[in-house]
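To: structure desk
From: M.T.
Subject: fold request, one chain
Message: Could you run this one when you get a chance? Sequence is below, nothing fancy, just the single chain.
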Amino acid sequence: MTTLVHGSDTLTRDALTVLQPGFVGTTAPDWLLRRIGEGLSSVGLFGRNIVDPGQLAALTAQLRAERDDVLVAIDEEGGDVTRLEVKQGSSFPGNYALGSVDDVELTRAVARELGRRLVQCGVDLNWAPSADVNSNAENPVIGVRSFGPDPDLVARHTVAYVDGLQGVGVAACTKHFPGHGDTNVDSHDALPRIDVDLATLHARELVPFRAAVAAGTKAVMSAHILLSALDPHRPATLSPQILTGLLRQELGFEGLIVTDGMEMQAVAATYGIERGSVLAIAAGADAICVGGGLCDEDTVLRLRDALVTAVRTGELPEERLADAAARVRALASWTQAHRARGAGSVPGAAVQEGTAPGADIGLVAARRALRVTRGEHPHTPMTDAPYVASFTPVANFAVGVETPWGIAAELERLLPGTETGSYDESSVDAVLAAAGERRIVAVVRDAHRHPWMTRALDGLLAARPDTVVVEMGLNEAEPRGALHIATHGAARVCGRAAAEAVVGTGA
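Reply: Done. Structure tokens follow.
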């Protein structure tokens, strides 16, 4: 490619400052360290960058050896969306489980412990919590990532989560503004559209964000969604009416506005990442998140040069770019000050479950979130190894396919010899043949959204009415099975709580 600018002049540094790119590898590549030296102020981490807490602490130390105030961001919601424990499953239930318990002190404690682990690993900006009101049960991308469908419940738990994270020095990034809950399209794949009136938006979508702003959330992430009542032409990420008019002026937010991933198709398919980034900064965004898919040096240079060119041609006011960069630096100063106050701690220490006070809070919360319903067929706790049939839907991009889910591993721990199989639209006969005489545990995720799952459960329960059903997604379908267990999420600790209920040691 042709590089348009050279050196480290103010304009170029500002353009680098507003980028939050990702990279490949478990150590920082040379190109990333070089760009940090030239002005890049933020780095985004994903599951591909993390092996264990010690390695992550070494990685963040490597980044800060180049520049002490670099922001290290991560998408660590807990629950279904985890990067810290991408290969194991999360030690913390997600928002839906916490909302179902509806104990704000529990939510605050979970967020505090998750934040403590991030701090110990050197991470200081979390792209969480999700403040979306999941008013559409068919939503394919939010679902259990939301605290629930009630705006006031979502608001109070969003505030508690922000308090928990920021109380230990991790900046919260409340998302996805102005609300991604009432969609049936995943913005990773296409542009969702919400056609409701302004009164509905203010009474529903905006309630948690108003509360988060009032509570002092350090950052807000925009959504790639079209809200026709606010801006009929551009998605929120690119809309001055939404980012500047609504979020800045009406809600009074003074912190950092971060975009959702700029390579997501809701923006990239129409505008491309370069023009999309320019429009986002012009609209009022301060930081461009990119790196979930595009994660190389060329992407950073393309976006840097697009911003510099837009300033030089007059498309993007230089003062708008300078203001965005100043907000990034202000947040970096806040996190740096928190790190300095906690300098006595040792990075990488005491980050595993059970090694620090409150470290088991995730399991405590998962157990409290469990809902167990007994069916008409008598159920007795399992004492022999069962067969676990996991009916597996296609994972959305935010969750990813690399994170395990289900209860088979936890049941194997309690009942050695437990076997499992994964099924999509396979026939019930395959499950029955694999199970033989063993009792069956059927594990589903959002059964209400997948008719094939419902059909599979119909056939399975007709043949084996003693089957236990475990729902690990939205608990929207009617309880069924000799025992129906709703976990309100698919985190590892949710699976453990469900396994305890199956064998009679839990609920």
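Reply (cont.): DSSP finds 17 helices and 16 strands in the chain. Let me know if you need anything else for the meeting.
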